[in-house]
Amino acid sequence: MPTVVFANPKGGSSKSTSCLVLAMMLAKAGRTVAILDTDRNQPIADWRTGKSKSSIKVISNKDVDEDRIVRVIEAERRRHAYVFVDTEGSASLLVSRAILRADFVLVPLQASAVDARQASRAVALVKREEEVIGRTIPFRVLLTRTSPLIQTGLEREIAGVMEKAKLPTFKNHLHERQAFKLMFARRLTLDELDAKVSGLDKAITNAEALAKEFTQVVNAKEPAHA
Length: 226
Description:
The chain is of the alpha/beta class. The chain has a single domain, classed as P-loop containing nucleotide triphosphate hydrolases (Rossmann fold, 3-Layer(aba) Sandwich), CATH 3.40.50.300. It contains nine helices and seven strands, in the order E-H-E-H-E-H-E-H-E-H-H-E-H-E-H-H. The chain has helices at 15-28, 43-48, 69-77, 93-100, 113-116, 119-133, 153-164, 178-185, 200-219, and strands at 3-6, 33-37, 57-59, 82-86, 104-110, 139-146, 174-175. A seven-stranded parallel sheet has the order 3-2-4-1-5-6-7, with helices on both faces. Helix 7 links the parallel strand 6 (139-146) and strand 7 (174-175). It starts with a strand and ends in a 7-residue tail after the last helix. 42% of the residues are buried.
């Protein structure tokens, strides 16, 4: 089943948020999901220590290093519909090995001028590994922390840069929402948060739309592994 790597050598690009939001929506739809949290800060492993009843399996970096990551990915592929790898914000050997085993790479990118300039580095990671293994690794850029109300001039400019560079980009963005931060703070899924959380319904709608597009994109690709 698909192995999806969330990669961007720049920290703070919302890799963990994107990873967990999509995993939540897939689990909600009845899919089995395992997340390998290789981020040094362990945000998703920390989330899993909470009281959430979600079926998502999380494996911390204590059990995954550059020598074991390929074996762990292959083992979880046999048990789960999706395997997600949340990587650290660097171009490390561990990140490279994860991408080598990826069926799809999702590149989260904040809609800021600084982050936009990092897009080429993130894509270069994928292209470098394609040369190593001699096959195409499908990828797509996801703009994160965008305005949920109206697209700003900067966001339009960055979207234009992505289009000009012919970088495949998700039509849906992951918006800036309080609920996406609270799911980490309270260690719960979006559906488990207090209904009084500001904008929760809109955050769930955003997450569902993104998950639908993600599923269509990933399932349209022929898996790289049997």
